[in-house]
Amino acid sequence: MDGSAFWPGKRETMQRYFTDEKLSIGEIFTASADDTHHMKNVMRFRPGDAFHMVDGSRHTFLCEITSAGETVECRPLELVEEAPELPVDITVYCPLLKGEKFDWMIQKATELGAHAFSIYDADRSIVKLDEKKRRKRIERYMKIIREASEQSRRQHIPEIDFVPAVKELSLDAFDHVLFAYEGNASTPAASLNETLQALSGGDRIAFIFGPEGGFSEAETEALSSHNSIRLGPRILRAETAPLYALSAISATFE
Amino acid sequence: MDGSAFWPGKRETMQRYFTDEKLSIGEIFTASADDTHHMKNVMRFRPGDAFHMVDGSRHTFLCEITSAGETVECRPLELVEEAPELPVDITVYCPLLKGEKFDWMIQKATELGAHAFSIYDADRSIVKLDEKKRRKRIERYMKIIREASEQSRRQHIPEIDFVPAVKELSLDAFDHVLFAYEGNASTPAASLNETLQALSGGDRIAFIFGPEGGFSEAETEALSSHNSIRLGPRILRAETAPLYALSAISATFE
Questions:
Q1: What is the rounded average pLDDT for all residues in chain A?
Q2: CB atoms B192 and A8 under 8 Å
Q3: Interface ipTM
Q4: Are A84 and B233 in contact (CB under 8 A)?
Q5: Which CATH number do you get for residue A52?
Q6: Of B80, B99, B114, which residue sits at a domain end?
Q7: Chain-chain contact of A237 with B213 (C-beta, under 8 angstroms)
Q8: Domain coverage including residue B106
Q9: How many domains does chain A have?
């Protein structure tokens, strides 16, 4: 670590990019069209300037610009030792939220280490979109997520997709399914802290959060075989609850 | 608890107001001008309708409307058993942030249990305000904080004020002073989790967060006798760091 603050002290932190390619030290590669634009027009990089590139194997390389003309050529110089990913994979299940709240939530949740996002159809969802609008939204969300991944120095860019309603979700691939719900007589809630003790490194967790109006009775019934989790004694807004959970998980495991 | 979700399921949760008066069961009181407006024009309350009122001793009463004319008269019916306040008092020290980020931060930090906010002058602060604008800002911030306190069902409304630069801060009244900084050779950082083990219920904590560009060297030097705390391995934006800390503290203590 270079002693910089947590937040983007641009003067102090290294610009970060992502590629699906696998890089090797010394082997020159050509930057993608998007990165070329950013390198030339935003960063105004010139030969000799340095940046970080995370490759398709989630290794981070310190790279230098070797030439910056029509295309930008770069050379990986050394491997960067870092472990920015949460040791458990958290997929955040959340319906769309009103206004900019969903944008804000996915940006913050990406900073806080979410592994993926699944946007489900909640019974009380206020926002409904047709297929065409959904595709456009995914493009916009991926831009937010990608930028937040670069800024927070992650090695993994979370994926985001639309999924069906709660009772039709396929959750079998997860080691744990948790949902943020205060509980009632038939589904008493556990505290998050207690629940975290049962998780192990590498576990895949689906964490399901409700819309502004909360889960419907049918949804809590459909989720009743899973673990309902209390997120403290205050009432959190829909967009705050995932951030609380991810922060607590990070503080416990990292 | 009534089995409602964490977020404002308006149909399911009780409207909450605050008063500096001390209430007693059975003793009728008159709602304030602001609350009267909200009760009549937003909630459309009529005699017999119920709400929660937190009084000057931070006791929460279930109340009913007894008459709703020019003024609204209310009767406390019973004390509500609840403990929505963090067991440690966290004062969030943070400079103003660009655009709507500061508004977002104080809203979320209020939901997450912050006790107070102190806006300090950071060396790298981007936003600077004169005295008149500061007074207007405090009014706006108090509105955000008050609404977030009501919505999240708190018993305490955090205060907010402008304070001087880091090296002139009076921090003697606090039991612990923490600052969110990754550390360097002269001020190695502790993990938040380790640090939380040293806190006891009732402790007063100043938690100092930097601006977008991070602390200056002079600031980290001025803070070097206090505890620098790492907030996980990812780079959090300035407005995210306080939310991470408060969430982790809540998950540990509540």
A1: 91
A2: no
A3: 0.90
A4: yes
A5: 2.40.240.20
A6: B80
A7: no
A8: 89-253
A9: 2
